[in-house]
User: Fold this.
Amino acid sequence: MRQPGGLNLRRWLTPGIGVKRWLLVVFVGLLLLALGAAHLIRQASRDLQPGGVTQVVLDAVTLQFLPYPLRGLTVGLVGLLLVALGAYRAARALTDPFRSAEAGPLVELIYQKRILARGPRIVAIGGGTGLSTLLRGLKEHTSNLTAVVAVADDGGSSGVLREELGIPPVGDIRRCIAALADAEPLMNELLQYRFPGRASDPAPEAGGSLGGHAVGNLLIAAMTAVEGGDFEEGVRQMNRVLAVRGQVLPATATPLTLHAELADGTVIDGQSRIANVSSIARAWVTPDNVRACEDALTAIAEAELIVLGPGSLYTSLLPSLLLPEIRDAIAASSAVRVFVCNVATQRGETTGFDLAAHVDALVGHTGPGIVDAVLANSHFGARVPSDYPAEPVRLRWPPAVAAPPKLILDDVVDPDNGHHHDPARLAAAVVRLYERESGSRRRSGGVARTA
Assistant:
């Protein structure tokens, strides 16, 4: 029921938005006014002299020439049409000055503030495109969103800015901010735009010193400089400037270096290199004494739902979880904790991994009991890209851990790309899982954990 000019009547009448009750008050007021007018007319008709001009006019206005049953019906229908027309035109007159093509109808903003603000407090931890995909879906269910993003990337534009400016990598933070920006997809296109060339090639023909850099990366770097080099504050201000629905936070303000030891004992340094190797035995980050972002720890402590993943297991998810403060905060949280497994393996770091192997690697690096449930894809009929060397994650269960988490299967895959999650389906599955688990906890009297 989207009306011309973008006035969405169905949205205006959404339960809890705070409009229907006042419409009812207006209606009752009009009804009382009409009753008062009817009493005045009745009294006047008694006092007037029969046959006079005033009496004739009054009889015409009160439809005395119609049969009695039709008088009320006719007046009621005309009144209903006038009220509907007046309400519609009044809403248009009040909201049009605040509308814009980018922001959409004012009712959408009210809907976000009234309805989405009541949604569950969700913390999503990870990086890469997987985390931004999840956020893009979750922002339609709640505005109480916090994305805690890994800062171990050392390749591309992020790697160059990290080396030249000494700031943590910003690429994954940029993707998450774009996903949560209210002006999506226009804001997404702007933040993701890359100048032609390579970030490491300053030659003019390669795009100059901006070659290969994403606009969003440069904006975050600039905001950090404006804030006197305070990276956390720079990201915090980017959230505010771009009207992010929720907040995007770095796991730490210190650039991390990811290390991995392979099964044969070889040690690989750097996220960009580790992403291309397989048979990883263990991973860790340096420096090992960094402080986690305080806002991230607060969000985890207050969360009702914590989601780990989806995303590259070793290079996007684990770097944040390998920080002791974040790992301990998750372990001590009373929130529902969910691991979202990838729908497909990744060439290199998870080649040949099935569902149980993903969980084994996660628990092996973080400790038992880190999650309460694992959400995995159950639909394998989606179209698979022919040019991507990967395979769907096989559903072998349980993992080789002492107390396996609960397994939840759902259709969360993109029907057009069997190697990616669908944002809407994934978010809906996560919210259903949360509602089911939180409802079960309420019935059983809650849950208590210690780090």
